[in-house]
Amino acid sequence: MRPDPQTRALWEMFSDLMDLDDAHRYVADMLAGMDVRYDLGDYHRLVGTLCPDMKLTLEQPGPDVVTAVTRAADLLRDGRGLLPDLVDRAEVRDAAAAWTGRVNTVTARTDRVDVDALLIRPDGCAAWALPTGQDLDATALVRALGTWFGHPA
């Protein structure tokens, strides 16, 4: 706000930094709250953070498989949790079956390669993650479901 040479130099330097993709993403993530991480007792880098929005290709079983492209944020609009199964792991969907009244479970494809499945709270915070290729610890998933969505129905 000061029109002196030092402030002008600082403004120009910051403006140049904002032309760099990494610096722009860093500042944008800070402004959006994407740099905040809550300690939810899980060490996966996504757990406790706002889940980055993902483009999802949903697979809906039926007589003919129909696919639809949507975003994870669109699936959170109804105020329910979201459990995207990103590699079609039936054991993940089975472990969460008792919470179908409070958590939308979808089988979808995405370009993420670091997780096989995520549990996302209605506020967009990742509450549980299954790293790519790891065996499912159903107890951890059930614990996260119970913590954020109550006892199974």
Outline the fold blueprint.
Elements: H1 5-18, H2 21-32, E1 55-60, E2 66-71, H3 72-75, E3 81-85, H4 90-95, E4 103-109, E5 115-120, E6 126-131, H5 138-149
Parallel strand pairs: 3-4
Antiparallel strand pairs: 1-2, 1-4, 3-5, 5-6
What's the quick description here?
It contains five helices and six strands. It has about 150 residues and is of the alpha+beta class.
Written description of the protein model:
This protein is of the alpha+beta class. 31% of the residues lie in helices and 24% in strands. It contains five helices and six strands; from the N terminus they run H-H-E-E-H-E-H-E-E-E-H. A six-stranded mixed beta sheet has the order 2-1-4-3-5-6. It is elongated, with a radius of gyration of 19 Å. It starts with a helix and ends with a helix.
Features:
alpha+beta; 5 helices
The helix/strand series, from N terminus to C terminus, equals HHEEHEHEEEH
Low-confidence segments: none
Shape category: elongated
Q: Taking strands numbered 1, 2, ... along the chain, how are they ordered across the largest sheet?
A: 2-1-4-3-5-6
Percent of residues in β-strands: 15-25%
* Annotation field: number of helices: 5
Largest sheet geometry: 6 strands, mixed
Rounded mean pLDDT score: 86
What is the assembly state of the chains in this entry?
A: single chain
The end-to-end distance, rounded to whole angstroms, is 57 Å
Number of strands: 6
